[in-house]
Amino acid sequence: MLRGKQVNGADGELRRSFPSVMAATASGLLLAAAFPPLEWAEAAWIAWIPLLLVCPRSSPRNAFRLGLLAGAIFWLCTLFWLTHVTWPGWILLSLYCALFMAGFTYAAAWLMREWGTERFGATFGLMLVLPLVWVGLEYLRCVLFTGFAWNPLGGSQYANINLIQIAAWTGVYGVSALIMLLNLALGLTLNHYIRQGLRGRPAWHPELMIGFLVLALALWTGNRVVAQDRHTVSVRTAVVQPNIPQYEKWTKDFVDTIYERLSSLTRMAIHAGAPDMVIWPETAVPDYVRQSRRSSELVRDMARLGAPILVGSMDIEWVEEGHARYYNSSILFDRDGAPVEVYDKQHLVMFGEYIPLRRFLPFLTAMTPIEESFDAGAESTVFSLEEPAVSFSVLICFEDTVARLARRAVRKGARLLVNQTNDAWFEESIAAWQHMTHSVFRAVENRTPIVRAANTGVSCGIDAHGRIHDLLVDVDGNTFIKGFGIVNSRAPAEDRAWTFYTRHGDLFAWTGLIAVVSLLGAAWRRARQAAVEARTEGST
């Protein structure tokens, strides 16, 4: 009989947990659907509701598990493109990122248990604190251990131009907070009716009013901002997309193909578009352009056709005899083919461009596709075009996911940002489009246009309000093509005012981080108090 009771108890627990597991699964899938490739942006506004309905009825520990499950589903779906480089890395990175979602559901369950969900004061407190907690955790993911800023919750709304204008004050984190606010408003309202049942009286729901009022204010503000037209300087750039597969880029048998493709596409771009500058993508040439006679001659011949060329290339600095430093660089060549300015990539990709602790943990090399580690650059470079007179800075590869680098460049004087990238590592996957969405927010945050030049993937222009234009595609809408595109950008005037975000940075995100630390402190004090009370009761 005892064994039978244990089995029935286990079955009962399984039956009770099954709806919670399904809720977590639904949240994970809805979140994934909000991002490319599906891009059902509306799904983000309801994705958290299943989990938020479960949190008031779960212990914080169980809510953590459910959040971990939802996060694992979301990240495994949206990072699947990483399997083109590393299967173990895909799984480990997905689980790591899921921890931050689990931390949020733990906090939500703990606060709902401490404060309740019925009183107006409790509801208002949850609506105020939980979006900040989410922002704090999201920001922590973006900066901890050099950071992984991929696919923030607000990034799902990159095409909602009016809405995302709040990023000029809050960064992308403000959009994330707004999405969480609406999820909470709807979730708390549904929770009320679940508790009351179908016979419960209709109630006034201030949480809904708060949520929709903030949303309406954000949309109204964004509409006014987008409608404003500022004095600008026109810049005409030609982006060259050679579409070289990754396995060909560093193979001697394909060197001639790379040079021929860069030459032919550049000639066509200059003759067809009369650009102010030609942009080649990240590591466009198959060697070190400043040390290679063949690459230098190619660049010189192309530049003398009438336009300076911005070249993505590896660069080398000899520190002492037999010892060199390697950089992932962007080099501007003038119309005579002479190098005039250089930028070295600052934010290197762990296991993609450098191997941490390689000397002490050599087995880590087996987890990466690289043989040598790059060194990081020290600062942003502000390049100058003479005609038209405009200053610009470069973000190489995933640096456009790092908001502080774009902000730093704009503060130094850049009025145009250029993202040179090589997304061929991930073949024809959705990684390239997900990558591009981050550039949208860098443009909005700093009210600064961006030009993207990709080896393959997404080459385009993005205006200061985040609108994508001059997208390089074929007749079928495919972006994974060989070709060139003419991008017409409108750079802001020299005397333009910085945005709040450009001036103050991630102030809003830091507010969220303070909320996380405060919550941890409150939880620690409560646990300590409970332990003291337990010891007191035990002694009596």
Q: Please, could you describe this protein's structure?
A:
There is one protein chain. This protein has 540 residues and is an alpha/beta fold. The protein has two domains: 14-228 and 507-533; 233-503, Carbon-nitrogen hydrolase (Nitrilase/N-carbamoyl-D-aminoacid amidohydrolase, 4-Layer Sandwich), CATH 3.60.110. Helix content is 49%, strand content 14%. It has helices at 2-33, 49-54, 60-78, 87-115, 120-143, 161-164, 167-170, 172-196, 206-227, 246-249, 255-273, 293-303, 403-412, 431-446, 500-504, 507-539, and strands spanning 232-241, 277-279, 309-320, 323-333, 339-344, 383-385, 390-396, 416-421, 450-454, 460-462, 468-469, 483-492. It has a six-stranded mixed beta sheet. It is elongated.
Write the layout of secondary structure elements.
Elements: H1 2-33, H2 49-54, H3 60-78, H4 87-115, H5 120-143, H6 161-164, H7 167-170, H8 172-196, H9 206-227, E1 232-241, H10 246-249, H11 255-273, E2 277-279, H12 293-303, E3 309-320, E4 323-333, E5 339-344, E6 383-385, E7 390-396, H13 403-412, E8 416-421, H14 431-446, E9 450-454, E10 460-462, E11 468-469, E12 483-492, H15 500-504, H16 507-539
Parallel strand pairs: 1-2, 2-3, 7-8, 8-9
Antiparallel strand pairs: 1-12, 3-4, 4-5, 6-7, 9-10, 10-11
Helix pairs in contact: 1-3, 3-4, 4-5, 5-8, 5-9, 5-16, 8-9, 13-14
